[in-house]
Amino acid sequence: MIHELAARAGVTSRTLRHYDRIGLVAPTRVGANGYRYYGPDAVVRLQRVLLMRRLGMGLSAIAQVLSEEVDQEQGLVDHVAELEAERDRIDRRIRSVRHTLEALRSGAEPHMDVMLDGFNDRFEDEVVARWGEKAFRAGHDWWHGKSLEEQRAWKQEVDDLVAAWVDTHRSGAGPVSERAQAMAARHVEWLSGIPGTPTAEGDRERSIAMVRGLGDLYVDDPAFTGTYDGPEGAAFVRDALHEYARTAM
After folding, report:
1. Which of 155-159, 177-181, 236-240 has the lowest mean pLDDT?
2. What is the CATH number of domain 2-69?
3. Cα–Cα dist 148/110, whole Å
4. How far is the C-alpha of 66 from the C-alpha of 227, rounded, in Å?
5. CATH fold group of domain 134-247
6. Of 53, 54, 73, 71, residue with least CA distance to 63
7. CA dist., res. 202 & res. 242, Å (int)
8. CB neighbours of 33 closer than 8 A, spacing ≥ 6?
9. For residue range 174-223, what is the model confidence (pLDDT) as tens digits?
10. Where are the domains of the chain?
């Protein structure tokens, strides 16, 4: 009956009557006494209306979606995907705020990129385009599952890796030298510690493509060019990685 359904759905009887009037959710049957009865199909439809309302859709847009839909089961699958995506966004924001709180409690100054994670991720589109949504999600969850101190330690490891590359380049060693190839092996081992990457998953062909692609990125992206001691240093890292991918992977 309408009062029982309204109570369970967290809406009012008036809302359900309104949904009936505009063709969103009709009762399964109306008794001779005027009571409205809702069967399983009607409840499923109400659930979908409420889900779309929670996602911010207006009633007219919801009506259009439902009227154009052919497969109700597929519609539910789509809803699950939307809700999971929303849950992931909320989880990211929770982690972001927790990191900010942790930084403030420890007396550290919270960094903007940590504070705003979950609200904007500048690398998402690029990672998804190159290696897929699964790789981005695995790496993202791994990174933001770390404490602030663990993140700092990992960033220090990256700084040490970059510094070692710069020292190797400045030493005059060539890209195919033993020292440069040892650096390339260290670089690939570092990549293997990042969940979601082909190297972490042991996918040889994609790992080779990834290592070569990163080498190219270090040269093509001005941000990395500066990181690796200018254009010559970036080209040195690229050539060493390409050689390692060709001969050792």
Report:
1. 155-159
2. 1.10.1660.10
3. 9
4. 52
5. Globin-like (1.10.490)
6. 53
7. 18
8. none
9. 999 999 999 999 999 998 888 878 888 888 888 898 899 889 988 888 87
10. 2-69, 70-120, 134-247
